[in-house]
Every structure is written in C-alpha cells, then in structure tokens.
Amino acid sequence: MKTGQLVQLKVHSRNAQRASIPPHATGTVICSYRLLRSKPRHEEMVDVDFKGYGVLWGEPSIVFEPLTEPVPAKS
C-alpha cells in the first residue's frame, strides 16, 4: 500500500472495534512499513487515518481493501 491511498476495512480488527470505526468508513494510508526489513516474511504494516473516527496505528495491511473508485460523497 502507498501513502495517500484510500482504503476500507476488509474485516473488523480489534483496534477498529475499540475506536468505533464502522466497516464502511474510508481511510487514508499515512504510512506503510515492515518492522524487520531483513525478514521479508514479516507482513506489511500501515497507519491509516479515518477522518472523524481516529487513526489505526500499526495494523497489518491485509485487514484493508484498497479502493479503486472514488467514494461517493454523503449528502
């Protein structure tokens, strides 16, 4: 995942449940990283900002689904 990419949750993570982030909420990737670059099997982690709900820090990227189409604005 890349910085600035829009994502939604695939599954409801524990941290998302604690932060009361609904499954339909759209977030923006702030940062993407691996904790140990020397070990490629370590999964990619991301920090994602869900405006109005908070930031999820250090979540595995596999719990997010990249959005390919713009999200319709709420009226």
Kindly describe this structure.
With 75 residues, the chain is mostly beta strands. The protein has one domain. The protein has one helix and five strands, in the order βαββββ. It has one helix at residues 14-18, and strands at 6-9, 26-33, 45-50, 54-60, 64-66. It is globular.
Helix-strand pattern: EHEEEE
How can the largest sheet be summarized? 5 strands, antiparallel
How do the strands of the widest beta sheet line up side by side? 4-3-2-1-5
Task: State the end-to-end CA separation.
Answer: 29 Å
User: What is the rounded Rg?
Assistant: 12 Å
| Count of discrete domains | 1
Low-confidence stretches: none
Q: How would you sum up the global shape?
A: globular
What value does the average pLDDT take?
Answer: 81
Helix content: under 10%
| SS class | mainly beta
Number of separate helices: 1
How many DSSP E strands?
Answer: 5
Give the percentage of residues in beta strands. 35-45%
Task: Summarize the structure in short.
The chain is mainly beta and 75 residues long. The protein has one helix spanning 14-18; strands at 6-9, 26-33, 45-50, 54-60, 64-66.
Key terms for this structure?
mainly beta, single chain, 75 residues, five-stranded antiparallel β-sheet
Strand and helix layout:
Elements: E1 6-9, H1 14-18, E2 26-33, E3 45-50, E4 54-60, E5 64-66
Antiparallel strand pairs: 1-2, 1-5, 2-3, 3-4
